[in-house]
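2024-03-11 09:14:02 DEBUG pipeline.ingest accepted 1 chain
2024-03-11 09:14:02 DEBUG pipeline.ingest length=179
2024-03-11 09:14:03 DEBUG pipeline.predict start
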Amino acid sequence: SLVTYQAYIIWNKKRLEAISAQYFQALESLEEKNYSISHSLFLNNSQNHKNGYSILSIFGLAESNYQKGKIDEMILNYKTIYDNESIDIYYRNLSRILSVLKDNSSSFDQQKLLLEPILKSPSLLQVLAAELEVLLLIKFDKIKEAKQALNVLLKRSNLSFEQKNRLELINKIYKNNAK
């Protein structure tokens, strides 16, 4: 009936407003470095609701875990996103990039493997992943490979002005150190 439908619409709108308020409260707690509260709120939102706030809350949960030094839990949070094929590919790729950026415990091969699907796709994040690959090579002291990847990357026409500047700075540093 029409009354039942309208009641459902009102109930659903209030439920979404409550979920939204809880999400923004979690973000505020994260900004205030109150990581245990943000963790709890993000966890609740991520488990109890199947909507956009659920995915955003998993990102927030990963950040809370990162800030608390719980890198393995952070990696699992990002894995929850990038392994879920029902989530848009952009967010799955973003979770891969964030996982590699913040991971200080996995091996080079594990991190490189995580970037591979982005590097081999026409993703909007492909150029950023290629830059991260260069940094990953440097981090793991694979300087020769880093220089090669950097040279290939610098020849691309789709680099932003800021990215080109960052990459040229890295290139200058390693050219000066090679002399």
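2024-03-11 09:14:41 DEBUG pipeline.report The mean pLDDT is 90.
2024-03-11 09:14:41 DEBUG pipeline.predict end
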